[in-house]
Amino acid sequence: MKKIFKIVKREFLTRVTTRGFIIGTVLGPVFIIGMMLGPAYFMSMSSQKALTFRVVDYSGIILKELPKAFPDTLDNGQPRFIFSALDPDVYQQKKEAVRADIENGLIDAALIIPGDILEGGKITYLAKSVGDIDLIQKIRNNLSDVVNNWRLKDAGMDPEKIYELTRKVSIKTVKVVKGQEKARGFQQEYFTSLIFLMMLYMTILFYGQAIVRGVTEEKTSRIVEILLSSTNSFQLMMGKLFGVGAVGLTQYIIWGLMSMAAFFFATSSMPAMADYISVSPVILLYFIVFFIIGFFTFSTLFAAVGALCSDMQDIQSFSTPVTFLIIIPFIISFMIIKDPTTSTAQILSFIPFFTPLIMFLRISLQGCSGWEF
C-alpha cells in the first residue's frame, strides 16, 4: 500500500505542477462558465432588449393591429416591440436608405407587408441577421393571428369569439422527484444535462488519453523497468490510475468552486439569469461519482492499450476501439435525452461502458429507483 501511495503522489505532483494543468485549470472554468452562463445571459438579455421595426404596409390594414399583436413589455414597463410606419411610395424611393438604417443599427428590422397578404402573400423580413429563430417564429405566429382575424372578419365571423373557443392550452412543466413536485422548464433541464454530459465525456476521454500516453512513454523510455524493479505491475497501474484520477478530481473541485462563485456573482448582478440556470448539489455529487466510475472503467482499458504500444505512433491505432466505446454512448445519449424513461435507456445504463454517461443522464433528467444503484 505504501508503494502505491508513493506512485500516486508522484503521478499527482508531476501532473499538477505542469504548465498544461495550470493553464487548463484556469481556462476550464472559462469554458464551463461560458457554457452555463453564456446561453442564459444571451437569453435573458434578448428578452430585455427593445426591438424597433420599420413597417411598410401595402395592405393598409395590418400596421394598426401590430401594437396589440405584440404586447410584450420590458422590466421597466416599456414596449419590447416598437413599430414605425413608412409609406409604401416613400419606401419605393428610399429602399437604400432603409437598408442603410438596418446595417447602421438605427433600426433592427423592416417588415414589408404585401397588398395581397389576406390572399396568401408573403411578408418580407429585412434584418442584419436572420439567425434568431425564436424571434422570427414569434413574428410569424403573431402576424398569422392578425391576418387570420382579418380573414374571419371578411367571412362574417367574430374573431374574438372564435379565439375564446379555440385558444391554446398553456402547459406548466413540473418534475416529480421522490414524491415532491418541482417546477422545471424544458430548456433549463435540457441545457443543464447537456453541458454536464459533454463535460463528463470530454474529461473521461482526456484523462484516459493521458493514461495511455503516460504508460507508453514510460515503456519506450525504459523508465518502467526501473519502476518494476521496486514494485510490481499491479501496484504500478493502481498508483498511476489513482494518481491521474486525483488530478482530475482536483481540477473538478477548483472548477466547481470557481463556477459557483461566477454563478453567484452573475445572478446577483442579473437576477433574471437565475430563471435559466439551476444546478442541484445532488447532481454535482452524481457528476463526481460517475466521473470516477467512467475514469476507472476506461482508464484501465487505456492503460492496457499503453502496455501494448511499442512506441508513441501506435497509440492512435490501438486506442481507437476504446475511444469508440466512449463515443458510441455519447452519441446515443442525444437520443435518450428526449425520453430517458424508455426500457432501452434503462438497459443501456446497466452496460458498463454505457453506465457513466447514460445513467448520469437518466438521473439528471428523471431520477432512478433505488435498486438501480
Notes on the structure:
With 373 residues, the protein is an alpha/beta fold. The protein has two domains: 239 residues, no CATH class; 113 residues, D-Maltodextrin-Binding Protein, domain 2 (3-Layer(aba) Sandwich). Helix content is 64%, strand content 8%. The protein contains 14 helices and six strands. The chain has a four-stranded mixed β-sheet with strand order 2-1-3-4, with helices on one face. Helix 8 runs antiparallel to helix 12, helix 10 packs antiparallel against helix 11 and helix 12 runs parallel beside helix 14. The longest helix is centred in the C-terminal third of the chain and has 37 residues. The two termini are 29 Å apart. The model has no long low-confidence stretch (mean pLDDT 77).
Strand order of the largest sheet: 2-1-3-4
Going by helix content, strand content and strand pairing, the class is: alpha/beta
Encode the helix/strand succession as letters: HHEHEHHEEHHEEHHHHHHH
Report the uncertain regions. Answer: none
Quick rundown:
By secondary structure, the protein is of the alpha/beta class. The chain has helices at 2-16, 19-46, 66-69, 88-93, 95-103, 133-154, 159-166, 186-220, 223-228, 233-269, 281-308, 315-336, 343-348, 355-365; strands spanning 51-57, 81-85, 109-113, 124-127, 174-177, 180-183.
Question: What topology does this entry show?
Answer:
Elements: H1 2-16, H2 19-46, E1 51-57, H3 66-69, E2 81-85, H4 88-93, H5 95-103, E3 109-113, E4 124-127, H6 133-154, H7 159-166, E5 174-177, E6 180-183, H8 186-220, H9 223-228, H10 233-269, H11 281-308, H12 315-336, H13 343-348, H14 355-365
Parallel strand pairs: 1-2, 1-3
Antiparallel strand pairs: 3-4, 5-6
Helix pairs in contact: 1-10, 2-10, 8-10, 8-11, 8-12, 8-14, 10-11, 11-12, 11-14, 12-14
